Amino acid sequence: MATAAPVCDFGWKAPGFTLPGTDGKLWTLHDVAGPKGTLIVFMCNHCPYVKAILDRLVRDANDLRAFGIGVAAINANDAAAYPDDSFDEMKKLALPFPYLHDETQAVARAWGAACTPDFFGLNAAAELQYRGRLDSSGKTAAPAARRELYEAMVQIAHTGRGPDHQVAAMGCSIKWKPE
Q1: Please, are residues 37 and 153 in contact by the beta-carbon 8 Å criterion?
Q2: pTM: predicted TM-score of the whole model, two decimal places
Q3: Segment 13-68, tens digit of pLDDT
Q4: Contacts of 11 (CB under 8 A, 6+ apart)
Q5: What is the number of alpha carbons within 13 Å of residue 132 lying toward its C-beta?
Q6: Long-range contacts for 93-97 (Cβ within 8 Å, ≥24 apart)?
Q7: Which end of the chain has the lower number of beta carbons within 10 A, N or C?
């Protein structure tokens, strides 16, 4: 079921975390942060929205490093209900940035993650400045699509502030564990 992320709450302070990565390390928000900002992406393995944008996300993450932006992805989906999102399956997905497992879903809840993908663009002070989409092409890559996430993160790297106009990300809902 498609879900839209909430609009950006400019200045919201990102809570810290310590999560295991597919590389065998424990990662904190400080570890993944770049000197000019940080992009945290809540995503998973099975979501068709994530699968459709993954190559463009990897491209943008690689390009953003040159601007001092750190990138990490977090998977918080219920792996019992969605085995493709288990930690073992996550390890099979080769990404050029840390891919972290939020097994308890505490980080996703603290951050207010709503969908996969859900992008949190932070400035150097770990304040939210972007909560929009990757680009306008959605599940089908459009060659001329404006790189909204990339442009926003470059702006954040230069000014510490994200764009006023942002279009919410859309994706599969986070698969919450039964309470």
Answers
A1: yes
A2: 0.96
A3: 999 999 999 999 999 999 999 999 999 999 999 999 999 999 999 999 999 999 99
A4: 127, 128
A5: 20
A6: 93/22, 93/45, 95/22, 95/58, 96/58, 96/61, 96/62, 97/32, 97/61, 97/70, 97/71, 97/72, 97/73
A7: C
Supply the angle between the helices 148-159 and 48-64 in degrees, to the nearest 10.
Answer: 40
CA distance 28 to 45: 21
One-letter amino acid at 66 equals: A
Alpha carbon distances (Å) from 108 to 43, 125, 142:
10, 20, 30
- Give the model confidence (pLDDT) of 71-121 as tens digits: 999 999 999 999 999 999 999 999 999 999 999 999 999 999 999 999 999
- Angstrom distance (rounded) from CA 105 to CA 1: 19
Contact of 114 with 147, CB cutoff 8 Å: no
Residue 147 neighbours by CB under 8 Å, 6+ apart: 56, 60, 134, 135
Backbone torsion region of residue 24, taken as left when φ is above 0, otherwise alpha when ψ lies between -120 and 50, otherwise beta:
left
> What does the block give as tokens for 146?
């404006």
Beta bridge mates, 101: 75
